[in-house]
Amino acid sequence: xxxxxxxxxxxxxxxxxxxxxxxxxxxxxxxxxxxxxxxxxxxxxxxxxxxxxxxxxxxxxxxxxxxxxxxxxxxxxxxxxxxxxxxxxxxxxxxxxxxxxxxxxxxxxxxxxxxxxxxxxxxxxxxxxxxxxxxxxxxxxxxxxxxxxxxxxxxxxxxxxxxxxxxxxxxxxxxxxxxxxxxxxxxxxxxxxxxxxxxxxxxxxxxxxxxxxxxxxxxxxxxxxxxxxxxxxxxxxxxxxxxxxxxxxxxxxxxxxxx
Amino acid sequence: xxxxxxxxxxxxxxxxxxxxxxxxxxxxxxxxxxxxxxxxxxxxxxxxxxxxxxxxxxxxxxxxxxxxxxxxxxxxxxxxxxxxxxxxxxxxxxxxxxxxxxxxxxxxxxxxxxxxxxxxxxxxxxxxxxxxxxxxxxxxxxxxxxxxxxxxxxxxxxxxxxxxxxxxxxxxxxxxxxxxxxxxxxxxxxxxxxxxxxxxxxxxxxxxxxxxxxxxxxxxxxxxxxxxxxxxxxxxxxxxxxxxxxxxxxxxxxxxxxxxxxxxxxxxxxxxxxxxxxxxxxxxxxxxxxxxxxxxxxxxxxxxxxxxxxxxxxxxxxxxxxxxxxxxxxxxxxxxxxxxxxxxxxxxxxxxxxxxxxxxxxxxxxxxxxxxxxxxxxxxxxxxxxxxxxxxxxxxxxxxxxxxxxxxxxxxxxxxxxxxxxxxxxxxxxxxxxxxxxxxxxxxxxxxxxxxxxxxxxxxxxxxxxxxxxxxxxxxxxxxxxxxxxxxx
Lengths: 259, 489
Hints:
The structure holds two protein chains of two kinds.
Chain A: H1 3-35, H2 40-43, H3 45-50, H4 62-70, H5 79-91, H6 99-112, H7 115-123, H8 125-146, H9 151-178, H10 189-201, H11 205-211, H12 217-227, H13 235-250
Helix pairs in contact in A: 1-5, 1-8, 1-9, 1-10, 5-6, 6-8, 7-8, 9-13, 10-12
Chain B: E1 25-27, E2 30-31, H1 36-42, H2 47-64, E3 67-70, E4 77-80, E5 83-91, H3 92-116, H4 121-124, H5 130-134, E6 156-163, E7 169-175, H6 182-195, H7 197-203, H8 211-221, E8 233-236, H9 245-255, E9 258-260, E10 265-268, E11 271-276, E12 279-282, E13 285-288, H10 292-295, H11 311-316, E14 321-323, H12 340-348, E15 355-356, E16 360-361, H13 365-373, E17 378-382, E18 391-393, H14 399-411, E19 416-420, E20 426-431, E21 434-443, E22 445-448, E23 452-454, E24 459-462, E25 478-485
């Protein structure tokens, strides 16, 4: 396939996954704050740090940070920018992705620019973040069932897995930055509640308990999110899937190579 | 008078335009013979039923994103091409004559191109003034002495036809560079088949859906002799911000070939390669939808980012086929157009089956004098413009516009031609005021490789503004499905 098309497929997968994961991180943070009184600079600053944003004032409040990570067009990793970038990549390869996938992605791109999306953001933050997560889930599902599972699909998957590995690591980072680990806090109820919230943000609550019944959340959660071999969002599974795909791309084929 | 309960029927209030030929009606309330079945069925619809179907047709276009882009902002605004549900019929036997006329015309134009880039017999014998050809913007000296595979220059042509008030089809212009619009013909047909399934059987309409297959066969048939079997054919597009990007993507999908941009191709050792994830892959035929000027920055415009450096070297070495060939612009130059009938006589020793609209060539002093003195009766066109730009519609122009054009004409006569205003035929069209006659033209598509095939029908463009004779989509025109009907009685 054309290298440029492969590039578009890869970035389409990455940007869709990124939009979903930013929504996840924002949602986790919301949930965490409901239970604990945390000093202001520890509340939202970590989210900026893990997104690589260093130029916002230290006392930026929750609303400012959420707007920056959700809507800000100059922030290339904001949810709105990621969806625009995903759609732009898809637009260049309309003959490669399926008509149904394109139609849905286009729908959500237009929705993000509509007043309904803004209204939902203001009236029900959790419903808004859920809707964002649905975009990637829908497009991935539609593509799985309507697009040929050839190289284009594989590049789409590669983008998704690489982004996912990075983002799971980042979500763990939120935990690290919020509760600067003083040894005496480890194992306290607050610490444990944090780990549970993080599991839930990765849709890992039930799989974790099925796999490791009765284990103490502390180290077991990070171990699960990093090393589990069958949990779809673990760093290990996502990196392994990326490597398997990458190996396939460099495997020699029967087609004769031109000079 | 209809009773209070009777719903108005679709054609009940249709009033003919007395100055124009109507495509459906010979006289008020009296359809052309071949349209009787069509009108029996369509005419049985009430206005309300018709509008319901219209709504469902519009939805198909919106949901499928059948759009054209308008150059404005970076994102590229996408618009829907307005579509009218009432088909524009053409009688089968009449179409056969048109088809023969189009094939004859393309044959002559193709020989003309071969001639001007080789022996220039037609110039030497004074049939066409040499200066008109050699000074044409579309004339490419790089093509002199070079023969493209199969001596085929015009792989795809869209010829614009109009019908005058006597009912005769006339050729308005030949688009021999990269005519667009054929995807709308096919999409319009898909929508019509969904909305009026029974009508198609009753009227026996010729199929248009085979266009992509015919195009692929034509392109493959002119691959260089060294090509693989089947050859690797690609469609070269300027990218998603081009107004016809939808069509590029549509044709690539339907032919099952790669849609590529300039950056995807490179030339090495006079061969063209595609950059793929498996390394370079040889390309044999390029159906290019970008102008000559942008094809090769090393040969034409150096600032072009759309093209492929050294593409012309590979082309001249005979290692790749470009469709259409480079330099075909000289054949669709509006200043050359008036000579096409003479070309047919000169090269084929035949009488032209299709006539041109009478044309004044402003490069001729006598014609220029006549045009300047009769501007209010004429349509004046800049020879290198298309899409309805650079035009003066005399009867509707202010005296100020006329005097401004007169100055332009005198300072650069080579740049203009003029024609009497032909009142285009009309076809019933749904408007804000109900069903009303609107002017239409017709663009059939002629595809040539080892043999020539004409798409039955073509794009009918319709002016949506009352009385307007301008049908271009960039000027607010719409389109209709064209039905070549085998048997209308």
